Amino acid sequence: MINRRALLIRTTAIAAALSVPQYVMAIKRQPDKLNDENKQLYHYKINVIKTVKEIIKGRSTSVYSYGDNLNAPVIKARQGQAIRIDVTNLLDEDTTVHWHGLRIPVHMDGVPHTGQVPIKPGETFTYYFTPPDAGTMWYHTHVNSVQQMG
Ligand SMILES: [Cu+2]
After folding, report:
1. Closest by alpha carbon to 69, among 81, 55, 82?
2. 70 CA from centroid of ligand 1 (Å)
3. CA distances from residue 135 to 6, 101, 103 in whole angstroms, order as listed
4. Higher pLDDT, 25 or 5
5. Cα–ligand 1 centroid distance for 138 (angstroms)
6. Which fold does the domain 33-149 belong to in CATH?
7. Separation of 80 CA from ligand 1 center, angstroms?
8. Distances (CA, A) of 93 to 36, 90, 132, 140
9. Contact between residue 43 and residue 84 where contact means Cβ atoms under 8 Å apart
10. pLDDT one-digit tens code per residue, 21-72
11. How far is the CA of 102 from the centre of ligand 1 (A)?
């Protein structure tokens, strides 16, 4: 029979052993998105497109997406370290990108006509800011949100 103390020691050891590989993987993922010109700057490029995906097997669905994958790319940055994201609008309508939950300057926050002029079809807008907080946030359009996000 195992007592409470032995159970706690074993479960703590198992939890510690499981957490090590995840930590190592997180560190190894960091360098692949660094800009060659400036190793301190995270640099991403996103194309906003309208395409067709097979969400339900055998059926085509018209979708808006960031890149060709239905799931938008994960953008990684470090708290207090500048990040640059070039967003190219390949739609036939205006768009912006709002960085939800990030405390950044209003002209980089993707709110059309308040913080920035919307990105016109065919144009690229460069978002450049330094995330002041750590955390997991999300991003989305702030133009015609019902259709572009829906
Ligand atoms: Cu939002």
Report:
1. 55
2. 18
3. 35, 9, 12
4. 5
5. 7
6. Immunoglobulin-like (2.60.40)
7. 21
8. 32, 8, 32, 15
9. yes
10. 333 333 333 334 444 444 557 889 999 999 999 999 999 999 999 999 888 9
11. 10
Residues making up the chain, counted from first to last: 150
The residue type found at 51 is: T
Instruction: Kindly give the distance from the C-alpha atom of residue 1 to the centroid of ligand 1, in angstroms, as a whole number.
Output: 53
- The contacts of residue 141 (CB under 8 Å, 6+ apart) are 48, 64, 95, 96, 97, 98, 110, 148, 149
- HEC string of the chain equals CCCHHHHHHHHHHHHHHHHHHHHHHHHHHHHHHECCCCCCCEEEEEEEEEEEECCCCCCCEEEEEECCCCCCCCCCCCCCCCEEEEEEECCCCCECCEEECCCCCHHHCCCECCCECCECCCCEEEEEECCCCCCCCEEECCCCHHHHHC
**Chain segment 117-134, per-residue pLDDT in tens:** 999 999 999 999 999 999
